[in-house]
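Chains adopt folds. We examine one example:
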Amino acid sequence: MRRMAFLLRPGWLALAVVVIAFSYLCFTVLAPWQLGKNTRTSRENKQIEQSLSTPPVQVKTLLPQQDSSAPQAQWRRVTATGHYLPDVQVLARLRVVGGEPAFEVLAPFVVDGGPTVLVDRGYVRPEQGSRIPPIPPPPAEPVSITARLRDSEQPVPEKEPFTKDGVQQVYSIDIGQIARLTGVPLAGSYLQLVDNQPGGLGVLGVPHLDAGPFLSYGIQWISFGIAAPILLGYFVYTEVRARRAEKAASKSAPQTVEEKLSDRYGRRR
């Protein structure tokens, strides 16, 4: 009971609330955030590794219908025969390729006997700051392409598409947003061209296989969430022991004359 009364003092109560809130955030927000990133990175690394040693397949095998998507097959190499829609072009802006700014050039591709898919033709470098350079159109005749399957990206909050210099621009390769922008129905996954392909521009490579520090960061946040209440309990324990020792010392100390007179006459009253 004395320890509980001690904890109810304003300073220690505030500290206890802070520690409890911190531990709650560690277990429910911070650790899951890092562990989730580790799971996504590990899954993507596995997909990339498998794609490097797996022969390409027809895109219609993984995207048989217009509303199909293949999130479990990201980075898988696929082939497609069909034709571009050369009059439809969208640029993904604020991209970084090789440590330098770039535009990624996007165009719809109609697969023979299959869906219409969005194709990332590759990148071009901006001119004089952020000006769009001349971009050669894709071939108008039927062609066969080899590419890698990619997942649709999440939209960037508060960043809406816009048109500049007659070219529609977006901040992310969000397939749904681009389909609405162009008026062209698109499959749920898009294609990223490999090198030496019809309509290709600067080649976008695959990410390096690096798990990153996310697992260790997640474990650290779990450790912090466990250690914080333990340290609070230790501080409370040491403080209670110190106060008890002070009280015991004050009781065993010899009384002065004034204290004896105060005790004597105080009891008589």
Notes: The chain has six helices and nine strands. The chain has a mean pLDDT of 82. The longest strand covers residues 100-111.
